Each structure stands twice: as structure tokens, then as C-alpha cells.
């Protein structure tokens, strides 16, 4: 068996027995035969997956981490629906109590999922960033596969954060998961509003650049500058989660010229004026500047 070879399995049990017999990472996908039967596709790689060092059983594969992330996304959407219904039935005390019980059960389930992934370095990085939480850690772990996303750009693309071209438009297919674009923007908003000492100065410097570059409306406002900054910060957060993923798996990072490393510890403050001034002016980051 060689890297790139694809093997077809008719059942999950057969596929999982095969995965457990190998140390190398196996990329998993689902497909349908011409007869309409569902099968599993396993693509072989030369990468060594390190998840079994942290997790046991089915948790030791990124495919199942993605399943947990999908569950958390579904629970979040259900909570949003319940919040709407709860407001409509606020006059009925019994209904409010019932909805509150459901929400608490949902939160308990998210806590249980989080407990399963708490040992991962991505989770440790999320805990260092103000504004990010359990929900975000699970999404980063489930929707960034460091073996498939061989560059940060591929992670941006899957999260529909590759740029304005990632927006949904009629008649054009979007590669990736559009719901993650909203999640990325929401994460960036919370990190900025909570005033994380590492990421807020970076975002404010980038906003200064966009305020100077983008035109203002007749009232002297520039809503585009704020939106573009949120996109930039969302990309930075996804890129940092990807980098932590890749480093844990001992896979190459290949940082670009404007690379900014992830927040190294909880008390880290980004006060490197050389880099902040370069961001404000839209210049390349100085190679001699200390990045952290």
C-alpha cells in the first residue's frame, strides 16, 4: 500500500479496524456507488497521526473530531431557536422552565464534548485567548484537519474566509462550509471586544490601515474598515489554530514573510511597535523585529 492509494470499505467497522492497524494518518470520506449504496473511502498518506497519543478509541481520528464539531454546531443552532421560542412563551412560566432545562442539557453536552478534547494543544491555545471558549476550541479541532489543510490558505478556504470572493453569491458554488464564515467573524468580534492583550492591538493597527485606505461615506463613516478588519482577525485566529495543529502533528508550517505567531501564553501582550507600525502602513513586517 502506498501514499495516495484509495481503499473502499462497505462498513464503518471494517474501516475502523483498518485505521487502528496503521500508525499513518488515513483521510476518510464518504461516497455512493452507482447502485446507491453508501461506502467509506480511505486515502492513505505518509503522515504519522499523533492523536492516539492524546485520545483513545474513535476520538483518535480527525474524522470523529469533525463529527463532534458538527454536533456542537447543531446544538448551538437549536439553542438559538429555543431562545426565540422562549421569548414568545415568556408569559407561560412552565414553558420557560422547560426551555431552560433543555438549554442546560445542551450546555452539559458541550461540556462533555470539551472534556474529551481538553488535552489537545489547540484547546490550550484557545484557553489563553480572551473571548474564545469551549465551543470555539471544538470547532477549531473539528473543522481544521492539519493533514488535509497543508497550508493556512486551505484552512481559510474551508472556513470561507479566503477573502471577499468567499461570500455566497447566486449561481456560484462555494468550496468549504459557509456557516463557519459566520462563526469566524463571531470569534473575531468577541476577541476584539473582550480586549485580548495580544490580538486587540493587532486588530486596531489593521483597522487604522483600512480607515486610511478605504473611502468614507457621506457621514464620514467607514463600515467597510471594521468588516475588513474582522475578516483579517478571523483569518489570523483560524491560521493560528491551524499552526498549533500542525506543530502538534510535527508537520511543516512554512511561515510567510508577514507571519505572526500564535499567542504564546495567557499574559502575552503584543507591544512590538515595529510590527504594529508595519501593519498600520500596509508594509511587510520587518524581518529583524522580535515577533512575540
Average pLDDT confidence is 83
- Flag low-confidence runs: none
- Give the strand line-up of the largest sheet: 1-3-2
Task: Tell me the span between the first and last alpha carbons.
Answer: 43 Å
- What is the H-and-E element order? EHEEHHHHHHHHH
Query: Radius of gyration from the CA trace?
Result: 21 Å
Instruction: Tally the helices.
Output: 10
Structure description:
- The protein has 292 residues and is mainly alpha-helical.
- It is 52% helix and 8% strand.
- It is built from ten helices and three strands; from the N terminus they run E-H-E-E-H-H-H-H-H-H-H-H-H.
- The chain has helices at 12-20, 62-88, 93-117, 121-128, 134-143, 152-158, 178-193, 199-213, 223-248, 273-280; strands at residues 6-9, 24-32, 38-48.
- Strand 2 and strand 3 form a beta hairpin.
Architecture blueprint of SSEs:
Layout lengths: L5 E4 L2 H9 L3 E9 L5 E11 L13 H27 L4 H25 L3 H8 L5 H10 L8 H7 L19 H16 L5 H15 L9 H26 L24 H8 L12
Antiparallel strand pairs: 1-3, 2-3
Helix pairs in contact: 2-3, 2-5, 3-5, 4-5, 4-9, 6-9, 7-9, 8-9, 8-10
